[in-house]
Amino acid sequence: MAGYDDRDGFIWMDGKLVDWRSANVHILTHALHYASSVFEGERCYNGKIFKSTEHSHRLRRSGELLDMPIPYTAAEIDAAKEATLKANNLTDAYVRAIAWRGAGEDMGVASLSNPIRMAIAVWVWGSYYGEAKFKGAKLDIAKWKRPSPETIPSEAKAAGLYMICTMSKHAAMAKGCSDAMMFDYRGYVAEATGANIFFVKDGEVHTPKADCFLNGLTRQTVIGMLRDMQIKVHERHILPGELEGFEQCWLTGTAAEVTPVGQIGDYNFEVGELTKRVSLEYERLVRA
């Protein structure tokens, strides 16, 4: 497949649809130099974006947290996503909305005079973890940790916060793994590089407390599903030593959906019945 910069189609950019290959920014765009960028990853199933409005509100909230108010309402963002899907004739697709500080009068850390820009791109994207979606992903344990919320706006889906995720995933892939699990600044289990994590023990589910990393919309959806299924969910701090006692594990995220995990470092997990059930129920929900 061609690179993401060389495809047919249309991208919504600053209020209008432009040719895919023409959706460019200047080299002195502030976001390129100082990471002043926020984004959303969404999936469209059978012509309907799952939790589209929730994603739009979170995009705006992320912008606020970065002192970067996005000049579009959630309703306008929803409409732009729909227009982009229609222009590209897609009903099942990944949707990427992104907002950033553009090029302008400022080219230092401060950038209040620079315009806030926005774009939406859509494309066909299969399973984020490939065959691991069915067989169970193999995860490395990252050397980088999720930082304290006193040092970053951890509630924002901000591009700069993913730098250590990229580095951790590259290191994991070099070891033949699909991804890496990260600890937080206190040493508790946190998440994977782009997905939240769940564990099963004795029929109950345990998931890290989202107090220093993004509380994913898919994470929240799955917790709600589990409670509807009358399965007890513990949102709590999880110590590394507890990994040995867990029986099952899965990841959640818009891209990951619900992906089983078979191994994290030296710890092994079964792709058990609850994992399979959650994956199936999530698939039914998003396509309802």
List the topology elements:
Blueprint: E1 10-13, E2 16-19, H1 30-34, E3 37-45, E4 48-49, H2 52-65, H3 74-87, E5 93-101, E6 116-123, H4 132-135, E7 137-141, H5 163-174, E8 179-183, E9 189-192, E10 196-201, E11 204-208, H6 217-228, E12 233-236, E13 248-253, E14 257-264, E15 267-268, H7 273-286
Parallel strand pairs: 7-8, 7-14, 11-12
Antiparallel strand pairs: 1-2, 1-6, 3-4, 3-5, 5-6, 8-9, 10-11, 10-13, 13-14, 14-15
Estimate the mean pLDDT confidence.
96
Number-wise, the strands total: 15
Number of H- or I-type helical stretches: 7
Strand content: 25-35%
The unreliable regions are none
Structural class: alpha+beta
In percent, how helical is the residue content?
25-40%
Pattern of helices and strands: EEHEEHHEEHEHEEEEHEEEEH
Instruction: Compute the CA-based radius of gyration.
Output: 19 Å
How would you sum up this structure, described in words?
The protein is built from 7 helices and 15 strands. The protein is of the alpha+beta class and 288 residues long. The strands form 2 sheets. Strands 7, 8, 9, 10, 11, 12, 13, 14 and 15 form a 9-stranded mixed β-sheet that branches. α2 packs across α3. The longest helix has 14 residues, at 52-65. The mean pLDDT is 96.
